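In response to a reviewer's request, we include the raw inputs and outputs for one of the modeled complexes. The two entities were modeled together in a single run.
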Amino acid sequence: MNGVHDMGGMDGLGEVDPTPDRALFHAPWEARVLGLVLASAAWGRWNLDAMRHARERIPAADYLRFGYYEKWFAALVDMLVRRDLLTAEELASGRPDPEAPVRTPALTAAAVAGVLARGGPTERPGGRPPTLEAGRAVRARNLHPPGHTRLPRYVRGRAGVVTAVHGCHVFPDANAGGQGEAPQALYQVRFAAAELWGERADPNASVYLDLWEDYLEPL
Amino acid sequence: MHDAAGHEDHDHDHDHDPSQVPSDIALRVKALESLMAAKGLVDPAALDEIIDTYETRIGPRNGARVVARAWSDPAFLQRLRADATAAIAELGFGGRQGEHMRVVENTPEVHNLVVCTLCSCYPWAVLGLPPAWYKSSAYRAQAVIAPRQVLATFGVDLPETTEIRVWDSTAEIRYLVLPERPAGTEGWDEDALAALVSRDSMIGVARLPAAAGPRP
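The model returned the following structure tokens for the whole complex.
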């Protein structure tokens, strides 16, 4: 989706504040949101791409106003209801539906270390094999899917060069929408700053992105 | 409880006053945790364990160990270049948001800078949770279009002869910057070297100064 989350190259979003920031959490509730999001994911009702898309669907004005963990909280609440872990009535009242059975949590404290250590690898060796190789000139396609995508606006239509092949990875555009993992080749692609930013480009810079096969056309 | 996401397929809360969000967020989070715990959806002890993990065990000291090893052990550096995920796993680090690692090396000619323009992807397994500025809209917007100016705001002034490579974390590949080894550290052991490596130098917004004195 062409959302406000796709920020690369935008102006007017304030100044970078380089203040050294050693605090992991700026209030205790932020830490609880981190825990709630990770613990809720253990139910397997959504994948990483679906949760990212839930954050992207936060209305633009809220997205810009919210802090990081407010976005996480809003998207979590959205997904809990969408994926039937909570009802809208339970959310509104703050009380469990007395008719619903009490479950056993999907993630116990003892399981946390193992779950974090395993993570969620996205490489799928059996996916659609790569057709491009390092050194190949490519153009990012001019795609504007209304759903989730990891193809930023600032590279669409721009020419670059493949610099590495990462193997086959889960395709977020499909995975976020419940259409399966559809694994395909993932490439590291270098774009010269001048190709992306024209006269405003840094004279000696480039931007590297990791882009899936379906985002690219060979030149 | 209000749903700030305003999702499309459920009733919207039209009475919601957006100005209350910052002040009542703590209450809303607490209410959600209580509700989910009462339904058996989450165990608060598991939340405690997750938080404790990122407060005490997974953070930038992990990445500093990787950098110090790379500076000290040429064979490790070769393995890091060939398969960073496997090499980093030798030190016991990996997993969530570090499943597929790549290392990019700073040299006198090339400086690397990591960003995620689409959200805030970050190599948790080696750096822990991202700092506030990394998650900010301003950094996400500017790092790709004006990297030299962004670096200057962090006090890193690079001449135009230094090439800048910006890494936008658009997939599940996570990038760790390998900073240049500071001058004056010849013969230092890995512990002493690791103590010099800052989080910001591994994101690319800092360069490490020459060692100020003899090996500690």
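As requested, we also summarize the result in words. Residues 59 and 81 of chain B are 22 Å apart (CA to CA). The longest helix of chain B spans residues 21-38.
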